[in-house]
Design goal:
Strand content of chain A: 15-25%
Order of helices and strands of chain A: HHEEEHEEH
Largest interface: A-B, 32 and 32 residues
Shape of chain A: globular
Oligomer: homodimer
Number of helices of chain A: 4
Distance between the termini of chain A: 26 Å
Chain lengths: 148, 148
């Protein structure tokens, strides 16, 4: 038994509180930030105790990059955004998580990064659910395998 | 002749103005941000016209992840930082560039991301040059090949 199996991964409750889950890619749980200011996805590699990118094994890092690319492509296609912002900060919630955010030249924080700029604006549930449906359909159609 | 060779890569002059070059990894130029508030490196893949991660070919994305991991490991070893922040934003300078920043619980922006928090504090040149020497030595010693 490896130490990995002794401590199963679970989603940090602070990440869970601010998001809705879209589903799981082979490595990462995909979350939608419940903030309608920006189309904002978060990838959380399901690896216990990972805090930094360099806590992941090299093959997991490669898989993560592939999942970042898939999610980035789908998010840009769905939103027609002007720019993608991709970041892992983790100064407040240590569990490794990667933000993939669709930015627009007329969003409320542009050109600054989003953190600390606008109060979160929770989605209307029907808008959120429609976005999640579109996201799942796009990830099922891109040839990389659907969200589980 | 591919279109790649028609438009040679060159470093964006705004990135050049705010940094000093440490050298080149196989894909990326490594820059040191001239801001002594935080040990702050920037990787710039030498690919003309790349703006988003998904503008890179898959093999270049994999190489970039490897270079992010090498630079992250060396930066943490050199600084004994508490957290790494890794991000590609690019809302103001479009040329694809990846920030790798060493953060401390007592730095002037903690726990916020660094952008927009503190005015840049240029290095004393001897301090900067010593850091660059240490960085180059660490990258020469990690088994991944030295900076060119």
């Amino acid at each position: 038994m490896t130490s990995e199996t002794k401590t199963p991964w679970s989603l940090d409750p602070r990440l869970a509180a601010d998001t809705v889950a879209a589903g799981d890619l082979p490595l990462s749980r995909v979350l939608l930030s419940n903030d309608a200011n920006y189309p904002w996805l978060i990838l959380v590699p399901r690896r216990a105790r990972a805090v930094e990118l360099i806590d992941l094994a090299a093959n997991d890092r490669a898989q993560l990059m592939d999942e970042i690319a898939r999610v980035s492509t789908v998010l840009r296609d769905l939103t027609a955004c002007h720019k993608l912002n991709v970041a892992t900060i983790g100064n407040m919630v240590a569990q490794l998580h990667i933000h993939v955010i669709a930015r627009f030249r007329d969003d409320g924080a542009w050109p600054a990064p989003v953190w600390g700029k606008l109060p979160a604006k929770p989605y209307d549930p029907p808008v959120r659910d429609a976005f999640l449906r579109d996201l799942k359909a796009a990830l099922a159609a891109d040839g990389g395998g659907q969200l589980e």
